[in-house]
């Protein structure tokens, strides 16, 4: 220290000043070196210099204020205290986010403009000088910084808004105060943080677990106004459809394909908003939706609403009501008086419905009325059909009979809409719900009320099938006017009034009792038949034996009868022959006796014949030894034998021949007394 003082004294005041100047120079040099981090930029502010021209906040020609050139990462020199340097982070856009750029320098926006025009030389807004000198404008820039961007963007020339951070230094007092407090957020600029995320259009899982296809309905917030009367913008309007339908071989399906073919490739799906405007894009609702994918959209310029894709299931068609397109040209003809049908591409109801498929069609521009083409079942009851629940407002039909009984009817009606007639049906009734609630409800309910009121309650119950058939014919005729087919009308259930139920119940109980008694009687009769059958079965063997015995007896009787008939025949023939023989023999004997009597006399003839008969017989009529006492004429002993011989002769002639009278006559002659012979004959016993 003493040496320093000695040297200072030696050099004097000049030396002191030189030393101070040297130290100051070293200090300034040290302060003039600035270290910029690898992900930072150095914002230079010049404290001394000329004034800025106009309303610019950045100096491009050495004026005082923020300098246009930034200090890049590394050790940089900027003379202090003429310049001061502040370090700012480079703009970094994380994955899944976008950065919206707001220019704080440049030309003023045209009146009515909401964003600045973009030119390719602007790049990612890293070259502030190229931006300003190239005609860049203040305000929101149309392109956004995509995910993964790391760019040394001037922190005063631009503000970059992301979901989680805001890069740059606001010039506006309002934003500057919020930034000073650390409270500057996307909400300060009117944005929700979610709007600064990459837009993803992907299938959505509903609460019931089903996957729903989605599309993005785009509304642009800047552009020239829409044409008068238009509600949506389509690039090139519908001139391509107008030219296409002039060709004779173009079908409605071809026109639909052109309408469904979006033109988003022209402006890269609204990501290149400048290209969108350059190709005639207009402000407002856009005709072409966004399909599946991820999109970097500027939330200041493009709003997207997620909507389900139009899905037409099997057994359905979609009748399209177009709110955009060419002027309405009716194609339905003069016979159809319920609205207008048009070709696809025109405003109105398309004459050609969309069939099974998925369609990326803007529901803000086209309303689809889904019409089931299968048989649709509608219930007038507490139970509803599951097919789109068309009958949720239908209830039981309440009607009164002629006597005043109140009936409640559960009814089911089946209808069918042909797919080719679906556009006319919708043109007539508006919606399927209107068809059910306004047309069917009136036709069905009024018919059953009128029918039931004209009938006694009992008749309605007994003629239920007839009432049902008449109802089907009536409803079919009514729906035919609307080009709807009726496939069935069914009375599902009838809720009877309590008083009628009691009467019918009592009657039915009586009928059931009567049937029960009849059934019991039939059962007893069946039981008796069963017992008889069982007895017959038990006696079947004996019956078989007796039947066989009867057959045997009948056969024997038949045999005996045949034998008797044969014997009778034989006897008849033999008897007749014997009678003839006997008759002949008797006549011969009689003639012989007559001749003998004339020859020897009557008594001798009798005696001779008696002796002859006795000699022929086998019975002994006298002992071996006989002593005869002959009477007067020697025949006294034989006189007693004459009656016996006559009886023997009578026995021998038992065949009914004429021998006995001849023999008797001979005996009378032999006995000499006709009266005595007759008396003896009468007194003899019959054989």
Keywords:
687 residues; alpha+beta; four-stranded mixed β-sheet; four-stranded antiparallel β-sheet; 20% strand
Structure description:
By secondary structure, the protein is an alpha+beta fold. 40% of the residues lie in helices and 20% in strands. It has 17 helices and 29 strands. The strands form ten sheets. Strands 3-4-2-6 form a four-stranded mixed beta sheet, with no helix packed on it. Mean pLDDT is 82; it is low at 630-635 and 652-687.
Strand-helix topology:
Layout: H1 2-32, E1 33-36, E2 40-46, E3 58-59, E4 65-71, E5 74-77, E6 83-89, E7 91-92, E8 99-103, H2 128-133, E9 139-145, E10 150-151, E11 158-161, E12 166-167, H3 173-180, E13 199-201, E14 204-205, E15 211-212, E16 214-220, H4 239-244, H5 252-260, H6 273-278, E17 284-285, E18 293-295, E19 302-308, E20 310-312, E21 316-322, E22 341-342, E23 348-350, E24 357-359, E25 366-372, E26 376-380, E27 397-400, E28 406-416, H7 422-429, H8 432-453, H9 457-462, H10 464-480, E29 485-495, H11 498-538, H12 540-600, H13 602-616, H14 636-639, H15 641-652, H16 659-671, H17 674-683
Parallel strand pairs: 3-4, 22-23
Antiparallel strand pairs: 1-5, 2-4, 2-6, 7-10, 8-9, 8-11, 11-12, 13-18, 14-15, 16-17, 16-19, 20-24, 21-23, 21-25, 26-28, 27-28, 28-29
């Amino acid at each position: 220290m003493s040496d320093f003082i000695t040297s200072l004294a030696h050099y004097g005041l000049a030396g002191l000043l030189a030393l101070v100047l040297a130290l100051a120079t070293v200090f300034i040099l040290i302060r003039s070196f600035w270290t910029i981090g690898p992900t930072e930029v150095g914002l230079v502010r010049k404290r001394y210099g000329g004034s800025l021209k106009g309303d610019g906040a950045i100096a491009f020609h050495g004026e005082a204020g923020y300098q246009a050139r930034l200090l890049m990462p590394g050790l940089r020199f900027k003379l202090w205290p003429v310049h001061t340097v502040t370090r700012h982070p480079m703009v970094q856009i994380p994955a899944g986010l976008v950065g919206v750029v707001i220019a704080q320098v440049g030309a003023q926006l045209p009146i009515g403009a909401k964003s600045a025009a973009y030119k390719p030389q602007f790049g990612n807004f890293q070259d502030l000088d190229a931006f300003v000198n190239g005609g860049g404008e203040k305000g929101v820039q149309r392109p956004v910084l995509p995910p993964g961007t790391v760019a040394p963007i001037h922190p005063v020339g631009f503000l970059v808004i992301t979901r989680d951070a805001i890069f740059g230094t606001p010039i506006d007092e309002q934003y500057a105060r919020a930034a000073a407090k650390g409270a500057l957020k996307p909400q300060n600029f009117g944005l929700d943080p979610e709007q600064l995320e990459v837009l993803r259009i992907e299938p959505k899982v509903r609460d019931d677990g089903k996957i729903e296809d989605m599309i993005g309905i785009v509304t642009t917030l800047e552009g020239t106004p829409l044409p008068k009367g238009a509600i949506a913008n389509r690039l090139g309007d519908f001139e391509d459809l107008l030219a296409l339908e002039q060709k004779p071989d173009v079908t409605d399906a071809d026109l639909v394909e052109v309408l469904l073919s979006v033109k988003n490739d022209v402006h890269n799906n609204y990501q290149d908003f400048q290209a969108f405007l350059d190709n005639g894009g207009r402000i407002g609702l856009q005709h072409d939706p966004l399909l599946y994918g991820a999109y970097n959209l500027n939330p200041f310029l493009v709003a997207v609403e997620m909507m389900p894709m139009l899905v037409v299931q099997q057994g359905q068609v979609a009748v399209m009501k177009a709110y955009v397109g060419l002027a309405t040209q009716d194609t339905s003809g003069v016979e159809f008086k319920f609205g207008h049908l048009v070709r696809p591409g025109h405003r109105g109801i398309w004459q050609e419905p969309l069939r099974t498929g998925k369609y990326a069609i803007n529901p803000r521009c086209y309303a689809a009325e889904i019409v089931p083409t299968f048989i649709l079942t509608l219930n007038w009851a507490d139970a509803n059909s599951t097919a789109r629940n068309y009958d949720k407002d239908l209830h039981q039909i309440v009607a009164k009979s002629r006597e005043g009984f109140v009936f409640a009817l559960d009814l089911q009606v089946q209808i069918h809409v042909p797919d080719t007639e679906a556009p006319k049906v919708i043109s007539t009734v508006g919606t399927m719900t209107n068809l059910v609630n306004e047309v069917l409800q009136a036709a069905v309910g009024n018919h059953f009320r009128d029918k039931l009121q004209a009938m006694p309650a009992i008749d309605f119950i007994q003629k239920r099938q007839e009432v049902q058939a008449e109802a089907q014919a009536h409803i079919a005729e009514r729906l035919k006017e609307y080009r709807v087919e009726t496939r069935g009308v069914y009375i599902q259930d009838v809720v009877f009034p309590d008083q009628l139920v009691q009467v019918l119940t009592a009657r039915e109980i009586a009928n059931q009792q009567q049937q029960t008694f009849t059934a019991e009687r039939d059962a007893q009769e069946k039981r008796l038949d069963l017992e008889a059958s069982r007895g017959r079965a038990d006696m079947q063997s004996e019956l078989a034996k007796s039947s066989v015995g009867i057959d045997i007896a009948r056969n024997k009787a038949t045999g005996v009868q045949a034998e008797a008939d044969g014997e009778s025949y034989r006897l008849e023939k033999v008897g007749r022959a014997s009678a003839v023989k006997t008759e002949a023999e008797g006549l011969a004997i009689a003639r012989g006796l007559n001749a003998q009597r004339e020859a020897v006399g009557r008594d001798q003839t009798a005696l001779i014949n008696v002796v002859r008969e006795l000699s022929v017989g086998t019975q002994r009529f006298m002992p071996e030894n006989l002593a005869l006492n002959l009477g007067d004429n020697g025949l006294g002993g034989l006189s007693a034998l004459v009656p016996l011989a006559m009886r023997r002769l009578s026995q021998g002639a038992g065949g009914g021949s004429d021998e006995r009278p001849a023999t008797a006559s001979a005996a009378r002659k032999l006995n000499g007394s006709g009266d005595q012979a007759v008396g003896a004959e009468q007194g003899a016993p019959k054989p």
